[in-house]
Amino acid sequence: MAILKIAKMGHPVLRAPARAVEDPTHPRIQKLIRDMVETMVDADGAGLAAPQVHVPARLVIFQAPPERATGPVDGEEVFDHTAPLTVLINPEIEVLGEERELGMEGCLSVPGLRGMVPRYTHIRYSGLNEKGEPVAREARGFHARVVQHECDHLDGILFPQRMEDLGQLIFESELKHYLQPDESEPSEAAE
Ligand code: NI
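A: This is the predicted complex of the input protein with nickel (II) ion.
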Protein backbone atom coordinates (compact mmCIF):
# COMPACT_ATOMS: atom_id res chain seq x y z
CA MET A 1 0.00 0.00 0.00
CA ALA A 2 1.19 3.45 -0.77
CA ILE A 3 -0.12 6.98 -0.81
CA LEU A 4 0.28 8.23 -4.37
CA LYS A 5 1.18 11.71 -5.57
CA ILE A 6 -1.84 13.55 -6.98
CA ALA A 7 -1.47 15.37 -10.31
CA LYS A 8 -2.63 18.99 -10.26
CA MET A 9 -4.39 21.04 -12.93
CA GLY A 10 -1.85 21.81 -15.62
CA HIS A 11 -0.25 18.35 -15.65
CA PRO A 12 -0.74 16.78 -19.10
CA VAL A 13 -1.97 13.45 -17.64
CA LEU A 14 -5.15 15.28 -16.57
CA ARG A 15 -5.82 16.49 -20.13
CA ALA A 16 -5.34 13.20 -21.99
CA PRO A 17 -8.06 10.60 -22.61
CA ALA A 18 -7.37 7.48 -20.51
CA ARG A 19 -7.07 3.97 -21.98
CA ALA A 20 -9.41 1.05 -21.27
CA VAL A 21 -8.30 -1.46 -18.64
CA GLU A 22 -7.89 -4.85 -20.32
CA ASP A 23 -7.73 -7.05 -17.22
CA PRO A 24 -9.13 -5.66 -13.95
CA THR A 25 -7.76 -8.67 -12.06
CA HIS A 26 -4.16 -8.05 -13.14
CA PRO A 27 -1.95 -7.64 -10.04
CA ARG A 28 -0.82 -4.23 -11.27
CA ILE A 29 -4.43 -3.00 -11.43
CA GLN A 30 -5.25 -4.60 -8.06
CA LYS A 31 -2.31 -2.74 -6.47
CA LEU A 32 -3.39 0.50 -8.18
CA ILE A 33 -6.89 0.14 -6.72
CA ARG A 34 -5.55 -0.44 -3.21
CA ASP A 35 -3.20 2.53 -3.49
CA MET A 36 -5.94 4.77 -4.91
CA VAL A 37 -8.26 3.92 -1.99
CA GLU A 38 -5.50 4.73 0.48
CA THR A 39 -4.70 7.97 -1.37
CA MET A 40 -8.36 9.07 -1.52
CA VAL A 41 -8.90 8.44 2.19
CA ASP A 42 -5.65 10.20 3.10
CA ALA A 43 -6.59 13.22 0.97
CA ASP A 44 -10.17 13.31 2.35
CA GLY A 45 -11.69 13.03 -1.12
CA ALA A 46 -15.07 11.66 -2.23
CA GLY A 47 -13.59 10.14 -5.36
CA LEU A 48 -10.43 9.62 -7.34
CA ALA A 49 -9.69 8.76 -10.98
CA ALA A 50 -6.55 6.93 -12.10
CA PRO A 51 -5.25 9.85 -14.22
CA GLN A 52 -5.15 11.89 -11.00
CA VAL A 53 -2.41 9.55 -9.76
CA HIS A 54 -0.57 9.74 -13.09
CA VAL A 55 -2.01 6.47 -14.49
CA PRO A 56 -3.93 7.02 -17.77
CA ALA A 57 -6.36 4.11 -17.23
CA ARG A 58 -10.18 4.10 -17.24
CA LEU A 59 -10.61 3.38 -13.55
CA VAL A 60 -12.36 5.48 -10.89
CA ILE A 61 -13.22 5.00 -7.24
CA PHE A 62 -15.75 6.95 -5.24
CA GLN A 63 -17.78 6.95 -2.05
CA ALA A 64 -21.34 8.14 -2.49
CA PRO A 65 -24.04 8.18 0.15
CA PRO A 66 -27.43 6.83 -0.91
CA GLU A 67 -29.03 10.18 -0.04
CA ARG A 68 -27.81 13.64 -0.82
CA ALA A 69 -26.78 15.64 2.23
CA THR A 70 -26.51 19.41 2.40
CA GLY A 71 -23.96 21.15 4.55
CA PRO A 72 -23.90 24.33 6.62
CA VAL A 73 -23.36 26.38 3.46
CA ASP A 74 -26.22 26.01 0.97
CA GLY A 75 -25.13 24.17 -2.11
CA GLU A 76 -22.14 22.60 -0.44
CA GLU A 77 -22.22 18.84 -0.64
CA VAL A 78 -21.29 16.96 2.49
CA PHE A 79 -19.20 13.87 2.07
CA ASP A 80 -19.99 10.84 4.18
CA HIS A 81 -16.92 8.70 4.82
CA THR A 82 -19.09 5.73 5.82
CA ALA A 83 -20.71 5.62 2.37
CA PRO A 84 -20.04 2.49 0.34
CA LEU A 85 -16.91 2.48 -1.80
CA THR A 86 -17.34 1.73 -5.49
CA VAL A 87 -14.57 0.72 -7.87
CA LEU A 88 -15.63 1.32 -11.45
CA ILE A 89 -13.53 0.18 -14.40
CA ASN A 90 -14.17 1.15 -18.05
CA PRO A 91 -17.28 3.09 -17.00
CA GLU A 92 -20.11 4.17 -19.28
CA ILE A 93 -22.71 6.78 -18.37
CA GLU A 94 -26.21 6.99 -19.78
CA VAL A 95 -28.15 10.18 -19.06
CA LEU A 96 -31.73 9.49 -17.91
CA GLY A 97 -33.51 12.77 -18.47
CA GLU A 98 -32.28 16.20 -19.48
CA GLU A 99 -32.64 17.80 -16.03
CA ARG A 100 -29.47 19.29 -14.62
CA GLU A 101 -28.75 21.08 -11.36
CA LEU A 102 -25.96 23.25 -10.03
CA GLY A 103 -23.88 21.95 -7.13
CA MET A 104 -20.63 22.90 -5.45
CA GLU A 105 -17.68 20.74 -6.46
CA GLY A 106 -14.05 20.48 -5.55
CA CYS A 107 -11.29 18.26 -6.86
CA LEU A 108 -8.06 16.92 -5.39
CA SER A 109 -6.36 18.02 -8.63
CA VAL A 110 -7.69 21.56 -8.24
CA PRO A 111 -6.72 22.16 -4.61
CA GLY A 112 -8.15 25.13 -2.75
CA LEU A 113 -10.88 25.91 -5.29
CA ARG A 114 -14.59 25.16 -5.45
CA GLY A 115 -17.08 25.83 -8.15
CA MET A 116 -20.76 25.55 -9.02
CA VAL A 117 -21.05 22.92 -11.72
CA PRO A 118 -24.17 21.85 -13.63
CA ARG A 119 -24.62 18.05 -13.73
CA TYR A 120 -27.34 15.69 -14.85
CA THR A 121 -29.49 14.73 -11.90
CA HIS A 122 -30.37 11.21 -13.03
CA ILE A 123 -28.02 8.80 -14.75
CA ARG A 124 -27.34 5.11 -15.18
CA TYR A 125 -23.75 3.96 -15.05
CA SER A 126 -22.12 0.67 -15.82
CA GLY A 127 -18.68 -0.88 -15.90
CA LEU A 128 -16.70 -3.53 -14.07
CA ASN A 129 -15.86 -3.79 -10.39
CA GLU A 130 -12.48 -4.70 -8.88
CA LYS A 131 -13.21 -8.41 -9.50
CA GLY A 132 -13.98 -7.78 -13.16
CA GLU A 133 -17.71 -8.35 -12.55
CA PRO A 134 -20.33 -6.15 -14.25
CA VAL A 135 -21.76 -3.23 -12.26
CA ALA A 136 -24.89 -1.34 -13.39
CA ARG A 137 -26.67 1.22 -11.24
CA GLU A 138 -28.96 4.19 -11.43
CA ALA A 139 -27.85 7.26 -9.53
CA ARG A 140 -29.34 10.62 -8.61
CA GLY A 141 -28.18 13.79 -6.92
CA PHE A 142 -24.76 13.73 -5.24
CA HIS A 143 -24.16 10.12 -6.31
CA ALA A 144 -24.81 11.03 -9.97
CA ARG A 145 -22.65 14.15 -9.61
CA VAL A 146 -19.64 12.25 -8.23
CA VAL A 147 -19.81 9.67 -11.01
CA GLN A 148 -19.98 12.36 -13.71
CA HIS A 149 -17.08 14.27 -12.11
CA GLU A 150 -14.86 11.18 -11.83
CA CYS A 151 -15.65 9.87 -15.31
CA ASP A 152 -14.86 13.31 -16.77
CA HIS A 153 -11.29 12.77 -15.52
CA LEU A 154 -11.05 9.80 -17.91
CA ASP A 155 -11.75 12.12 -20.82
CA GLY A 156 -9.31 14.81 -19.70
CA ILE A 157 -11.97 17.16 -18.29
CA LEU A 158 -11.71 19.00 -14.96
CA PHE A 159 -14.73 20.54 -13.22
CA PRO A 160 -13.93 24.21 -14.13
CA GLN A 161 -14.30 23.19 -17.80
CA ARG A 162 -17.91 22.19 -17.06
CA MET A 163 -18.77 25.49 -15.37
CA GLU A 164 -21.02 27.95 -17.16
CA ASP A 165 -20.17 30.91 -14.91
CA LEU A 166 -16.57 31.24 -13.76
CA GLY A 167 -17.81 33.92 -11.37
CA GLN A 168 -18.88 30.90 -9.33
CA LEU A 169 -15.30 29.58 -9.09
CA ILE A 170 -14.12 30.50 -5.61
CA PHE A 171 -11.45 29.75 -3.05
CA GLU A 172 -12.41 27.24 -0.38
CA SER A 173 -11.44 29.80 2.25
CA GLU A 174 -14.22 32.09 0.95
CA LEU A 175 -16.98 29.45 1.07
CA LYS A 176 -18.35 31.08 4.20
CA HIS A 177 -19.12 34.23 2.18
CA TYR A 178 -20.69 32.32 -0.65
CA LEU A 179 -24.25 33.23 -1.52
CA GLN A 180 -26.62 31.22 -3.65
CA PRO A 181 -27.50 33.07 -6.89
CA ASP A 182 -31.17 33.48 -5.88
CA GLU A 183 -30.19 34.92 -2.49
CA SER A 184 -28.15 37.66 -4.16
CA GLU A 185 -31.30 38.99 -5.86
CA PRO A 186 -32.51 42.14 -4.14
CA SER A 187 -35.32 41.32 -1.76
CA GLU A 188 -38.66 43.10 -1.87
CA ALA A 189 -37.85 44.91 1.35
CA ALA A 190 -34.75 46.42 -0.23
CA GLU A 191 -36.60 47.74 -3.25
NI1 NI B 1 -11.67 15.44 -9.46
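Residues 12-102+118-157 form a domain with the Peptide Deformylase fold (CATH 3.90.45.10). The CA atoms of residues 44 and 89 lie 22 Å apart.
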